[in-house]
C-alpha cells in the first residue's frame, strides 16, 4: 500500500496485485456516501479492506483537492554535504581532544 502524509491510502493491494484504487473508486462510486463505498470495498477486498476512518480521510483529502499520490516536500533545513575533508578534520580534532564541544568543532571546521 502507498499512502500520502494524511493517511489516505491510494492503492489497495491483495496478494501483490492492485485490486482497487481510490481514483477508480471515485469514478465508479461518484456521489455515493462513505458507508456504501465501505460496503463496496468489503465486497471486493473482504480481508484487506481499509478502515472506515481511512475512507473518511481519503474523502476529506479529495474534497480538499488532492490530485497526486506523492507527498508534498517536507519543510526543514536543506540537506548538508559531507566531504572527506570535513570528516578528516573532525576526526583529527576529536582524536586530539575528546572533550571538545560541538560548538567548538563547528567553529573550527566551519560547518
TrEMBL record:
Source organism, top-level taxon:
Eukaryota
InterPro entries according to UniProt:
Transposase-MT_Hybrid (IPR052709)
Question: Matching PANTHER family, A to Z?
Answer: MARINER MOS1 TRANSPOSASE-LIKE PROTEIN
Which named protein is this? Mos1 transposase HTH domain-containing protein
Source organism of this protein record? Euphydryas editha
